[in-house]
Amino acid sequence: MSSNSSLSTMQRLVEQLKLEAGVERIRVSQAAAELQQYCMQNACKDALLVGVPAGSNPFREPRSCALL
Questions:
Q1: Which helix (H) or strand (E) holds 41?
Q2: Residue 36: is it exposed, middle or buried by C-beta count within 10 angstroms (0-12/13-18/19+)?
Q3: What's the pTM value of the predicted model, to 2 decimals?
Q4: Total domains, the chain
Q5: pLDDT per residue over 26-63, tens digit each?
């Protein structure tokens, strides 16, 4: 029984390795350049860089209501 489970484990491992071998890969330098280009193109939409308009900020402090 142990050899059957070991065999099926090895077969699954071989199938996984075949799948991983078929994955298209690119150079790290190319991926970094593409990531940098994407970040530069979308910087104007990044709330961490340009801020959030006060009217659409769901995390702004609630206004207090005072009755005189």
A1: helix 28-41
A2: exposed
A3: 0.50
A4: 1
A5: 999 999 999 999 999 999 988 888 887 777 777 777 77
